[in-house]
Write a structure and sequence with these properties.
The protein contains five helices and no strands. The protein is mainly α and 144 residues long. Helix 2 packs antiparallel against helix 3.
C-alpha cells in the first residue's frame, strides 16, 4: 500500500471527491494537525522523564502522520496529482546527493545545499501534464 492509495480509499469511502468547496475544510484540518504537532514538540522539549518523552514522541508521531494524511487529502480535493508531484520532488532532492561521495553538501547551519546545475521541481509542468491526461480520459475539469 502507499500513502496516496490509502488516502484515496478513505476519501472515496467518505465521498470526498475533488471539490473546491472542501478546500477550506482540509486547510482547517491541516492547521489543526500542525497545532497538535507544535503541542507535542513543546511537550517533547520539556519532558523531564523517559515516560514523558515517550508520550510526547507518540503524540508527535500521531500528529505527523495525521498531517501527512490531511495534506494528501488537501491535494486530492484540489485535484492535484500529489503522487506525480511527490515523484518530481523525490527526483530533484536525490539530485542534491553527490554521485561520487554519496553525501550532500551543507552550509554552516546544516542546511543542505543545492549543487551546481540543480533545478527545482517543475510543478507547473506536472500540473499541465496531469490536466492534459485528465482531458484525454474525458474527465471534466472542476469548476468553482
Amino acid at each position: 500500500m502507499s500513502i496516496f492509495y490509502d488516502v484515496d480509499a478513505f476519501m472515496k469511502a467518505a465521498g470526498h471527491t475533488p471539490d473546491p468547496k472542501r478546500v477550506s475544510l482540509y486547510l482547517d484540518l491541516v492547521r489543526e494537525e500542525i497545532g497538535e504537532l507544535e503541542e507535542a514538540m513543546a511537550a517533547y522539549h520539556s519532558a523531564e522523564s523517559k515516560q514523558e518523552e515517550q508520550i510526547a514522541k507518540a503524540d508527535a508521531l500521531d500528529a505527523i502522520c495525521d498531517s501527512i494524511w490531511v495534506l494528501v487529502g488537501l491535494g486530492r480535493v484540489m485535484d492535484l496529482p500529489i503522487d506525480w508531484g511527490w515523484d518530481e520532488v523525490t527526483i530533484t532532492n536525490l539530485k542534491k546527493i553527490d554521485p561520487q561521495l554519496g553525501t550532500v553538501m551543507r552550509d554552516d547551519n546544516g542546511k543542505i545545499l543545492k549543487p551546481a546545475g540543480w533545478r527545482p521541481p517543475d510543478m507547473l509542468k506536472i500540473i499541465q501534464q496531469f490536466e492534459m491526461s485528465q482531458q484525454r480520459l474525458g474527465r471534466p475539469e472542476i469548476q468553482e
